[in-house]
Amino acid sequence: MRTAARLTTRALPWLVGLAAGVLALGPVLGPGYVLRYDMVFVPDLSPATVLVGADGFPRAIPSDAVVAALSLVLPGDLVQSLALLAVFAVGGAGAFRLSVRLVGGASGRGRAPGAVLSAGAAAGVLYVWNPFVAERLLLGQWAVLLGYAGLPWVLWAVVRLGSARPGAGLAGVVVALVPAAVGGFSSVVLSALTAGPQALTGPRRWRNAGLFVLGLVLVSLPWLAPSLAAGAAGAVTDPAGVEAFAARSDTPFGTVGSLALLGGVWNAGAVPPGYGEPVTATARLLLCAAAVVGWAWWLRRFRPAVGVGLTVSAAAGFGVALLGVSAPGRELLAALIGVWPGFGPLRDGQLYLAPLALVQALGAGAVVLWLLGAPPSTGERWPDGRRHGRRGPDGGAAGEASRGTGVPLWRAVSVVLVALAPVVVLPGLLWGAGGRLAPVEYPPGWRAAQEAVAADDRPGAVLVLPWSAYRGPEWSGAPVVVLDPATKLFDRRTLWNDDLSVGTPDGGRVVVTGEDARAREVARLLDPDPATGLPGDALLSDPDALAELLGGLGVRHVVVSAPVENRFWSGAESLSVVVESADMTLLRVDDQHINADKEPFPGLEVTSGLVTVGAIIRSMARSGSSLGFQRPRPRTERDARKEIPK
To answer: What is the pTM of this model?
Structure first.
């Protein structure tokens, strides 16, 4: 019986996360690829595509490298399904278990009382079912969400640093940072924001902070090392992005209110269907208010281990999100970016609401505890003033709760409502966001082009036309805006327009300049027409001159990944048609024009990645548990000896 209870306690957090994931993703988990904004998965993603992909800041190296590695053994659409489901499973389980650990319930060896598990379930559901997750998912930022899912695990690993040996504590932090390691730059920044203040609280704060920073560095090496040593170190971040990525109102409560509700993303196309309607927005406001009040009650009465640190993180993140709301704040951000491009990540302020989302999730759990009359930690008082003095068989707060006299019906109904409220007030996330996340298959012409480039042993880059980063491919069924999949389809260096054009509320457009220096040089020489995205008229009228120019730029193949009216390659002697279909044309520049060497082996990126993987594997072996929720082992002195009585 006790074994069954222990297994239930271990499995329930994951089941809650998985159930939320299945409800949210629905058809996404079937065959086919979901393409939306930055979410681009392709068949058979090549490691070479990742490692020689582009100049500039290597944000996508970790996530794309993991996808490429998994694609060697699994179909690409299955890799995408697993990655998206992992967001909900890891995030839901993490918030659930963090709530339980803070309450003092299950230690992993026994069982937690029903009240504690109910609170954990409420925390887990709210953490993965909120506007922040929905809007980032509809932006296609699955890697960022994976790092978000790991935040509860990272926070608890930092809490454990104070009672663990330095080596074991560092191992726990590195293991907990695995989702952030895959998520990349933004995920590591969110982890630092969420757990950094916690590392500076309590005993041994400087040692703990140093270990935490070391863990962040270890998991960041795949993008940190090349960014410091190669062309990314001199990358330019366009201050125009401050206006483009500033938070916006998506509820009747204005921009500040939208941010408090965990919404306010900069892209209106990423708002889930039905969100922002007066009724659902008001219900969402009441839920968030109750969660914040629950957190404040828990903080004042019972002082949880993460109370001060997480509150500071949430306040700091909310402050960053507010910077882009006002004109003075935007001017300050633009000035900071002008001084140092490293401030560029602050442009997308809504991203930094992640700690507030965790606060609200734990606050929802506190509301459930209050409703059920359960104490948040052993030895504290119940809401009605009784002292909780007996520990349960698992060493947690099980005794009194398991001995209780029953729960009034109104309390039980209220608990169910709190736990299910996130889904009720945000139905737009259900079943693939109401059909906005629908899988499609790549047309045969795309696969044929991929295979033809892979079979060509002559070095040279792939140029993607039209010269526009985002497409609305007709073959995707209901056309959606997506980063051109051709940018990731081929196993060699790809040149494409990484500028980002964003519409403004007044009907204008802001163009955020890309970071790829080689792509900017290509754009300068091709002088593409803004309307068609094709090279300038002078080059279009002489395709052989175009081929000679491309060959000098090291371009071996030209991909036209959208229907175009001007078939400029017709009659050209130096541009051979390799694949031609309705929505994909692959051209090959004749050998005589090619001036390209084989791309150098990216030794720094590979070495950095191997160091990170080695650190993670060693940390997993040392910690003996997944994602850092292990029990601290008792400290023993090295010179302790068992004395033999005389």
So the answer is: 0.91
